[in-house]
Amino acid sequence: MSGAAPATDRALSAAGSRIDAVTLEPEPSAWADLARARFAELDEPSRNARLALGLPIDRPVIASGHQAQLWHAGIATKALAMHAVSEAVGGASCWIIVDTDEYAPGRLAWPARRDEALTRAEADVFGATPDQHVHPRASARPPAHIEMNDAVLNNLSGAVRRGCQAIGAHVDAPSIAHQVSLAAFDLLGGAGGHPVFVPVGAMLASGAWDDLLYRLRAHPALAHDTYNTAVRAHTDAGVLPLGSRPDRGVELALWRLQSPSVRRRVFERDLDTIPVTELAPRALLMTLMVRMRLCDLFIHGTGGETYDRVTEAWAQDWLDAALAPMTVATADVRLPVHDQPVTERDVAHAAWRAPHAAHHPGDLGDDTNQHLRDELVERIAEAERGSAHRAALYAELHELLQRVRIERAEHLRAHQHRSQELHQQYAERDIAEDRTWSVALLDTETIERLVDRVRAMIVQAD
Questions:
Q1: Rg of the Cα trace of the chain?
Q2: Cis peptide, bond prior to residue 136, ω within 30 of zero
Q3: Element (DSSP H or E) covering residue 305
Q4: pLDDT digits (tens, 9 = 90+) for 394-445
Q5: Half-sphere exposure in the Cβ direction for 229 (13 Å, CA)
Q6: Could you tell me which of 71, 89, 92, 381 has the fewest CB atoms within 10 Å of its CB?
Q7: What mean pLDDT comes out for the span 121-136?
């Protein structure tokens, strides 16, 4: 958060996946108090909105959310922090499921070997092809069997199956979005708690959404102008300003969802012709609604925290509303694809060491011949240039090195192999160092360590 240092817990596992960093921002000591203070100001519209969506009104609500996927550890950390804070304040958890556009809820990827090269393999639990999306509000279906034709790295085939089984355990869920979200929480071993799931689609049938639509209709120019003012004040957020058209008026922070895969921009003069059921909020308007009515603390990832600075400024200017405070939770966890990260310097050193070893017996474990080699080098340096004696010493040195290379061929090949190995690993670094692999691929010990670190940071702070 602005002006406050994040709490970052860094550790490296000796085995299994690496937890490179767990970051909670601002300092977690503030989180519980922020939630309690906001809850103390709970107003009647917020009570009504929470009751309509199955949220309690007698204790603080901690919220976060994401698309329905078997998320990576950075997103899982939001769920872990949400549960830890809700326990600390005796509150409840609310997980917002983004289900208003098509994506691939059942897509699962893993690192694999193909023709000896590390590659990214993926398949869809629901049988969708790579160019297909599934609407998350569709009815849940039994998952398809995933074929793993590539050589799955480090016995990850069991982990891929575990992800499929987690989704398959909830075929009775009301939608694919619910099914996959339940599976994602199951993969955390209960450490994410049992939040109230609130799909965005359900929020659009609530009074909180009706109220915002009324305000947009009543004063579209005000909503438009204050939005753009907030965008211009936070250019680092990367949010584009709303436009306008002479025939349709000013653009609003809405989408028209004419079909699951088609969404269009909405202008003020469109509002009288578009059915309410086809209107949906853009990202800023959605989090504005959640933070204005549904929660007392909202936990973002790093990207959401950046754009929601715009949301805060917009809500203040447009609605004279202070939103529920937001915090940030994320983590960098990487699979044990390679023993350790490979740098460009590592590659260069290995590339140097292989030919160096061919001329330095000591690098091959032969200290005796290294001593003889050094003596010959000194004698060559002292010998007269162009002399027969100097040429004879060169020949002797060459013969010595050739003999050592034959005797220590296995050691020399090891250096050459290591150089090739590091070169390949460096070429594979984008896959090896990817932090977005699903938590389904993490071993139980790594998940437990991640849970412990998040809890410790929250509990110790509170």
A1: 30
A2: no
A3: helix 302-319
A4: 898 889 989 988 998 898 888 888 777 776 666 667 777 889 999 999 999 9
A5: 13
A6: 381
A7: 83
CA distance 269 to 251: 9
Q: pLDDT tens digits for 349-371?
A: 877 888 888 899 888 898 998 89
pTM value surpassing 0.85: no
- Written as six digits, the tokens of 155 are 């016995």
What beta strand segments (E) does 54-149 contain? 61-67, 92-98, 107-114, 117-124
Q: Is 155 helix (H, G, I), strand (E, B) or coil?
A: helix
Distance set, CA 44 to CA 41, 50, 357 (Å)? 10, 10, 77
| Helices 220-233/207-218 angle, 10° precision | 100
What CA–CA distance (Å, rounded) separates 221 from 225?
6
pLDDT at 102: 82
Query: Could you give phi then psi for residue 111, rounded to 5 degrees?
Result: -80, 135
User: Residues 344, 336: contact at Cβ < 8 Å?
Assistant: no
Six-digit token string for 167: 């989704």
Q: What is the mean pLDDT of the chain?
A: 88
**Torsion angles phi and psi, residue 131, rounded to 5:** -95, 10
Half-sphere exposure of 147 toward its Cβ, with a 13 Å CA cutoff?
A: 4
Q: Is the pLDDT of residue 5 over 80?
A: no
Count of Cβ atoms closer than 10 Å to residue 100 Cβ: 23
**Could you give the dihedral angle defined by the CA atoms of residues 384, 389, 394 and 395, in that order, rounded to the nearest 10 degrees?**
160
Distance of alpha carbon 111 from alpha carbon 154, whole angstroms: 9
Amino acid at 94: C
Q: Which whole number is the average pLDDT over 310-336? A: 96
Between the alpha carbon of residue 98 and those of residues 280, 281, 436, the distances in Å are 11, 11, 19
Rounded to whole angstroms, the Cα distance separating 312 from 288 reads 8
Distance, CA of 157 to CA of 160 (rounded, Å): 5
Query: Quick one: DSSP state of residue 290?
Result: I
